[in-house]
Write a structure and sequence with these properties.
The chain is mainly alpha-helical. It contains 15 helices and no strands.
Length: 454
């Protein structure tokens, strides 16, 4: 597609078709990411319960760290989008190179630290688990940690393409990763009999291939607003890196704290018994799928609003934010209403006890109803604030709401009122209301218009 910033207009203009072309590949991309986790679990299940448990524990740590890299990459993409809005391709390309330097250094350093301290980390967090599961977890974690730099670089590459209005490349890369991962799992697990180490090695190889391909495409790109050409003539631009980190660091902290908060809630649910754990797991599947279209629209909002802000077009930023939030309301409403209507059919795929299904149904109804009416102001609107450079505000609100409202209130309801797993869903809705209220207030105040980065 033609990137709107190249249209020659005084400010970026996005047609409905361009917005749809930007959004739908992100939906597919996120579905593929979810599918990769499901396929991994199914294929590892062949190795037994200890292997499944070990992989699950390792991935619980991985997702926290990888979420931080995803948000860091989005910080660079915001700066790129704003330079593209100014039609400053040279500065946008320089920003892209600085982003790659930054994520390579940080992810590589973190990988080395986690490799050296993996035993301490696991015993500090999961010291109470059975030795067999611990062995499998550490074995899987060893290889997946080595893939951190590659997933960070491929995530940055996809974010850079989205900043140009092209989300199809990221979707294609996710499809490739899924194919390579399935082939690798089949080869390393079932042919070579390498167990969970084979599953982790497959992940490492597929992520390496993804990073190599997408960075190669950016390096050899011609006729696009930004390129990585000249990246090997290393030139570190400290002021520009500070701009990237001004968005990326708050975003990364916010994402990591959110995931840690979810881990805390999972631990709380585990105290309610086996039925609660199973029901909570099924509800989390509903939440993951039910969030996908809204998260895709929110992700697309970053380059759209970012380019408008870079062009000095505050009216355009307001216009497209309203348009995309309304569109998110529409698709989130359709999907989650369908979930409510067809929930009995969905639950038919799970062989769970009546008690577990009752808990899942309860959580599913609460989530889907709240997702239709509240979710967008709480989770879609802040992406527009981040795109404008207002990341510190979103980080503070999101962190406080997660820990004081969702986590704190859930524990209080469980401890002082004797509530079961329903306390998690009640506190979730309360957190959404608090988040949404603060973000809507910030948006209407217009303070975000003073936060542009370029």
């Amino acid at each position: 597609m033609n990137t709107p910033v190249l249209s020659g207009l005084s400010a970026p203009r996005w047609t409905n078709r361009q917005l749809l072309v930007l959004i739908w590949p992100i939906v597919i991309d996120q579905l593929l990411i979810v599918l990769m986790g499901i396929i991994d679990t199914v294929m590892v299940a062949y190795l037994g319960e200890e292997a499944v448990g070990g992989v699950s524990l390792a991935d619980s740590i991985n997702v926290v760290l990888l979420q931080a890299f995803s948000f860091l990459a989005s910080g660079g993409a915001v700066v790129c989008s704003q330079f593209l809005g100014k039609k400053d391709g040279k500065s946008a390309s320089n920003t892209a190179r600085q982003l790659i330097y930054t994520v390579a250094l940080l992810s590589g350093g973190l990988s080395l630290v986690m490799l050296a301290a993996r035993s301490v980390v696991f015993r500090g967090i999961y010291g109470h688990i059975e030795p067999g599961i611990m062995i499998q977890a550490e074995r899987y974690f060893f290889f997946t940690v080595m893939s951190y730099p590659f997933i960070a670089l491929s995530t940055a590459g996809s974010a850079l393409y989205r900043s140009m209005g092209n989300s199809s490349v990221g979707m294609g890369i996710s499809f490739l990763v899924n194919i390579l991962n399935v082939i690798g799992n089949a080869l390393f697990i079932f042919v070579f009999k390498w167990g969970v180490a084979g599953a982790a090695l497959s992940t490492l190889v597929s992520r390496f291939a993804a990073a190599l391909i997408i960075l190669g495409m950016l390096y050899r790109s011609r006729g696009t607003p930004l390129s990585l050409e000249g990246i090997f003539r290393v030139h570190v631009d400290i002021p520009l890196i500070k701009r990237i980190l001004k968005i990326g660091v708050p975003n990364g902290i916010e994402g990591a704290l959110f995931q840690v908060g979810k881990l805390s809630l999972s631990r709380l649910v585990s105290t309610f018994g086996t039925a609660a754990i199973a029901g909570y797991a099924v509800t989390n599947i509903i939440m993951t799928i039910g969030n996908l279209p809204g998260l895709a629209v929110a992700t697309a909002m970053m380059p759209v609003v970012g380019q408008c802000v870079g062009a000095g077009d505050a009216k355009g930023a307001v216009h497209y934010t309203k348009k995309l939030v309304l569109f998110s309301y529409l698709i989130m409403g359709i999907l989650n209403l369908a979930f409510i209507l067809f929930m009995p059919v969905f639950f038919g795929f799970f062989r769970l006890s009546a008690e577990s299904l009752g808990i899942a149904r309860q959580g599913g109804l609460v989530f889907c109803t709240a997702a239709i009416f509240i979710w967008n102001f709480a989770y879609c609107l802040p992406y527009a604030l981040r795109a404008a450079g207002d990341a510190a505000y979103t980080m503070v609100v999101a962190a406080l709401a997660m820990w004081f409202v969702r986590v704190g209130f859930a524990h209080a309801l469980a401890r002082f009122f004797g509530m079961g797993v329903i306390c998690v869903w009640i506190s979730m809705v309360c957190e959404w209301l608090v988040r949404g209220g603060f973000f809507l207030f910030r948006w209407k105040s217009g303070k975000w218009k003073e936060k542009h980065l370029v």
